[in-house]
Amino acid sequence: MKSIQRISFLFLCLLVLGSSYAQTTDYESKIRALNLKKEKIKEQEKAALKAEIEGVETRLRKGEVTQDEAQKEKEEYARKRALNIENRIAIVDNQIALLERNKGEELILQRSDTAAYTQIRFGWGNGDEEDIEQFFGFSIKNNDRKNKVKYDRRTYSDLVMTFGLNDVIVGGDAGSGSPYEIGSSRFFELGWQWRSRVFEKSNWLRFHYGLSFQFNGLSPEGNRIFVTNGDQTELIDPGFNVRKSKLRMDNLIIPVTFEIGPSRVRERNDRIRYSIHRQFRLGFGGYAGLNIGTRQKLKYDQDGERIKDKLKRDYNTGDFVYGLHLYAGVGGVLVYTRYELSPFFTNAAVDQNLISLGLRFDM
């Protein structure tokens, strides 16, 4: 239990520090690359001039041009290459000045407003960009100008997937021992969410809401299985070797989250967009929902045969679930943790509350 807490805290600290460092040094690395590009430009143009002069010398030796004609051609090639160096380096210098002045923030020119096109890309967390529809990481950008563009789009939607490890806090004491194997106790969640900007002129606070299917598994330590004894659910040794024992509870939940973090403003004549692509995000909120099914899965050997049983019962799990969650990360990849306030088993002598740590992907 303590190891999960330490890992969760470490992940959150690394994400905060890493995102802060990345935001302050990303444009500086671009500037270093542009300075190297200027040297490459000089080398490239000088090499081209050398090849052109050698070509003139070859023609002069063959008698195809006179000495005066050859000299004029060399001077013309030299002027052209000198201007090329000057113009190309000026373009790079302007790019550097733009990055330094705006600390890496840029307004990106789009394709012509009169051109219609469709672009397919792959990546995470781009669903807040203009004219983009995204599903499972594949984004389709449709620039059909027959459709009227909304000037300010405040609400976006994403497919959300989370998965990771489960454990329990027994009796409200995080230091108490857990009867479950962390590596084999896992969760998976898949749902659809909407994300709305809270304030009209600022995107630092967003409100998320949606609908998700949640699957929680618990695997007991040792050779034990779950059995019901009246209104109690107990772990017992069945008297035979169990290769696998896992209890799974499936929920339909409504998650609600407030999210904070920076964003980039992309403004054009006909629209304004607030992008959180590659930006640090911190979300905190809760969820509530219904238990739609509980089952135990057993694998064991009997009389030389491998047996698989799926026992669908309520196992004294609650009809309703509710809890708190927190996530942090950059763009569409985040570290996710949650704590279930509702006990996993109702009427238990000692409450067991789920705590989870994993990854979340906004697709």
Automatic annotation (TrEMBL):
Keywords: Coiled coil, Signal
Stretches assigned to coiled coil: 24-102
Secretion signal span: 1-22
Protein name: Outer membrane protein beta-barrel domain-containing protein
Organism: Aureicoccus marinus
